[in-house]
Amino acid sequence: MSLEKLREYFKVDQVKAVERDKGDSNIKKKCRDGADNKTGDNSGDKEEGENKDDNDERIYEIVKTMEEVNLLVENLQKKSEWSFDIESSGLNFIKDKVLGISFSWEEGQGVYLPLLGQDCIEIWSKDDKERVISLLKQVLENESIKIAHNGKFDVKFLRGMGFHVKVEFDTMLAHHLLQDRPHGLKELVKRYFQSEASYEESIKGHFKTKEKNFSDIPLDVLAKYAAMDADFTFRLYKLFKSELERDEKLNNLFKTLVMPLSELLTTVEIEGVKVDIDYCKKLEAEYKQKAIVLSQEIEQAVGEKFNINSSKDLNRILFEKLGIKPCKKTPKGNWSTDKESMEELAEQHHVPKLILEYRKLEKVVSTFLSDVDKKLDSKGRIHTDYRIHGTETGRLSSSNPNLQNIPRDKNIRRMFVAETGNKFLVFDYEQIEVRMAAVISKDSKLIECVKSKDVHCLIAAEIFKKKPEEVTKDERSKAKTVVFGVMYGMGKESLAKRLKITTEEASLIINSFFDRFQRLKRWINETKERTKITGLVKNYFGRKRNLPDATLLGSHNSRKMGGALIQSVNTPIQSSSSDFVNMAALRADKKLRELGLSAKLILLVHDELVFEVPDSEVDKTREIIKNELEMELESVPFKVKDVVSDHWCK
Predict the structure, then answer these.
(1) pTM of the model
(2) Has domain 275-381 been given CATH number 1.10.10.10?
(3) What is the pLDDT of residue 628?
(4) Is 198's pLDDT higher than 90?
(5) Domain boundaries, the chain
(6) Is the sign of the CA dihedral 233, 234, 239, 242 positive or negative?
């Protein structure tokens, strides 16, 4: 059915971007051609900023009657691919409501189906609303390829309405694989379709509060905005799909890891994890008291009261009153008191160390403990938001709370608990980045070390030229620092500070390390040299990262270039490790579903996976998951250690 015919049957209010000549034959031809083209691929090989957006050919519609709903669904059922986008009253998928859904199956058009009106008023009768939901379920759960931008957000809301939607192509996640930030829809519209750079301006004047409740927006205004979201999502899909298909390895990563991971994380976020709120409040009070005691100790040490959180006060106290020698300046020309600077200052005086401890307590309280009860659902569970696109390396980030930055402090992890009758199965990969470095560099000596029971002991034996049984605890600890530091570009000065040794001793250790692991050294050098030319690195699985600063010339750019070259070595290892863990999570989840077991993945934090399992299934599930997580890659074994507990622990 052509859009022209669809409009004739719909007989709806058309929200037009501009007034058009009703006799425009080009538009009619576009509608006819588009309706007969199920794939609708007319993007060609257009480059960024060259994508034509003819305002005269854009048509946005709003569905208002059951007849129109039927026609919309009938049309969608015939399409092999289409984009969708929800509008909601807020960002919380548990308490906020879906206002409507927009669809697009051809560039330059969009249809908005409202479920609620302005201020969340009901616009359908009870019987009609039930019919609308029933028809939507048919189309949202059919076999068509569904496209969304940040689809995880939409799917969580739709799951709450009983719709099980599978997004096959997420344009935000595709762009994350292809290009640098930003990845937001409006930013990408500005980047690829400059003529539409301001379409979100149409809604800004309608919000009643800073929270931006979309139910404040009049229906006709929201309809156009929503339809444009779906339209531009569909257009971006055509561009990014074409670009991904030019890179077989990257396209495979998108299909086999990125999109399945998004689906898994949707379930993980909906499931959430239980918080022991009584324990949490007790810990908050305890940490706040510790912070008070520390602040008093700091004030006593400097001889006066001051605002510890004020950089101006810190400059006066540390550098003027205490006479501590500053180490670097901020862009505004003031002496820096950031974490890195304070760690250096702590070597001169004990007060900066106390301030760092105070900041750590304050950060823990504000991030994990303060107002946590307001973030819980009715079952006492918290729902963190994972972001696949949150880092340049592909490593997951998260918020509400930011679990990726959770401190090693076991007291904080203790607040996350299993439901009564369940246990946590905690799996943690051992030395995963060292093992991945062995895979990527193909260093036979390093591969030999990671195959041993105690990786760092064997590496220490290589560095210090001893038998493994002769390695001391201190030497093993130093080896661990050397591996993670030197492998990522730590110089002799930084290593000397970290190990509290002389630069001469640090230099000897670094030279000894690379004497023993020469293939690793060669890989590091080759990677840096290649990145200087290409400004690009890839991980083991084909993920890319642009590092343009690596190509900079001139001494004035040496700092930027040096940082990019360190990232050129760090990225393949860290990024490959992250992809490996996420692939393992997908394997484990798939096996659990195949076997009909009740275990659920509830936390993913770097190299750690946490499952919640009924007591009766712990032993069986433990072995099944472990078998899926442990494997060899290029003859390098990847091992996990596991713990069964009532709460999250290492």
Answers:
(1) 0.90
(2) no
(3) 98
(4) no
(5) 3-33+50-246, 275-381, 397-431+578-645, 433-574
(6) positive
